[in-house]
Each structure stands twice: as structure tokens, then as C-alpha cells.
Amino acid sequence: MGTIWIAGAERLPVSLPGGTITSTAPPRAVWHTTEADPGTAAVWASMIRVLNSKSAEPQVLYDPVTDRLGQFMPLNVAGRALKNDGTTKTNRVGRVCIQIEVIGRAAKPFTAYWKPGPNFRALMAALRSWGIPEVWPSGPPPNFIADPPHNVPEDERSRTIWLSKAGHYGHSQIPGNTHGDPGG
User: Fold this and answer.
1) The dihedral formed by the CA atoms of 3, 30, 53 and 75, expressed in degrees to the nearest 10
2) How much is the pTM?
């Protein structure tokens, strides 16, 4: 078993407890963006309120400008930031399915301006503790498409890969989901 609570992460309020993991698929991490500008306490608080009000909390919230890290729920339970596709309880696929909501915008990827700090390194160590390899089974997340449609076509969201491969995924790569985050 891996890390349950990341050392140094703030405990964040959650609207409902996370769900039970029901899958034995390999472990994975899913990256999201909030579509808000990072770097302020006001935006941090606003993102917590928004995620709580939608009951769409991931396990982790991260601000790449301040290196602020928060955790809504233990890493060994299902988050709620993915849409279930009608066939699969998408949030529950994997020995763990750790979801990270990065305060940032898909059209302006945070990796272009951020420098990993100690909290980011603690997050990555926690993901590795669950055996999540640092690979992108569906390839790197695609660049955000500004013109309609705003998302990746369903045929680029491989159910076979999602159900069988460990590693990192973008929200844009998950079957049954229509978001374009986290961008390239």
C-alpha cells in the first residue's frame, strides 16, 4: 500500500467521502486543470468552493505558482472529478486512480512557467509509492483546442488503454469525458 495522506499537504474540506475503489486495473494518475489563474489565496479558496459545490473533488489540489498542495480525501479512495461513462465507473478504475486538479488553464499549460517545488516533489513521491509509472500510456495530453469542438474526439480516448495501462493520463484522454484539460 502506498501513501494515504501526503506529508505537508493541507487537509481540504470535502462535500462527500470518496468512493470505494472497485477495480484491479493498474494504478494511475489523472491530471486536470481548473481553468482559473494560479497564484493567489483567493483563487485557491474559490476552487475549493467550486469543487465542493459540484461534489467533484479530486484527491489533490495543486497551485503551480505557489507550490501549494491540498488534499480533499485519502489517495486510496475514488475521487469524483471524472464523468462516469455509463459503462465504467471511471473514477474507480485502477488499484488507485489519483486525480490532481491543477489551478491553471488548459490553453496555457502550467508546465511552461512552473518550477517544481517541495510540495510537487512530495506529490510525485506519493504517486510513485502506489507504483504509478512516470509514463503517459495514451501519449502526452494533446494541446487544448480553442475552436469547437473544445475536446478530444472519443476515438482518441482509448477504453482499452484506460482499462489496462498504468501511468499518467490527462482528463482529455479518459473515455466518456469531454473535457480538453490539462492541455499539452
Assistant:
1) -10
2) 0.93
Report residues of the chain scoring pLDDT below 70: 145-157
Return d(Cα 126, Cα 167) in angstroms, integer: 13
DSSP-assigned letters across all residues of the chain: ---SS-TTPEE---SSPPBPP---SPPEEEEEE-SS--S-HHHHHHHHHHHHHHT---SEEEETTTTEEEESS-TTSB-S-S---SSS-GGG-SS-EEEEEESSBTTB-GGGT----HHHHHHHHHHHHTT--S--TT-SPPPP--SSS-S--GGGS-HHHHHH--EEEEGGGSTT----TT--
**What pLDDT score was predicted for residue 179?**
82
Bridge partners for 170 per DSSP: 31
